[in-house]
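Hello, quick one for you while I still have it in my head. I'm working through a protein record and want to make sense of it properly. Would you mind checking whether the tokens look sensible for this chain? I owe you a coffee for this, so here goes:
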Amino acid sequence: MYPYPDDARARALHAYVRQVSAALGLSGEQFCVDPPATAYIALDSRLPHWPDREVALLWDQHYGWSLAVETHSGKTCSSTPTTTPP
């Protein structure tokens, strides 16, 4: 389940991201955590200006949450951070 199962910080981040995912009403494992401190949550919805592009939330230990939108080339373009880290 975790690349570093003995790392309490990785387990705590995984639990936090699972809670955020559940609070957003997402089902199943629509997220991943990459210890030591990054996370990705795939969103079901699309943005009105880019209905053909996937959207995700990214979390980073230095910047907190940010919104990411897939570009035409399939790469991810992140916005500025939206909130502070947990």
Notes: The chain has a mean pLDDT of 75. The beta strands are 31-34, 38-42, 55-60, 64-70, 76-83. The chain has one helix and five strands.
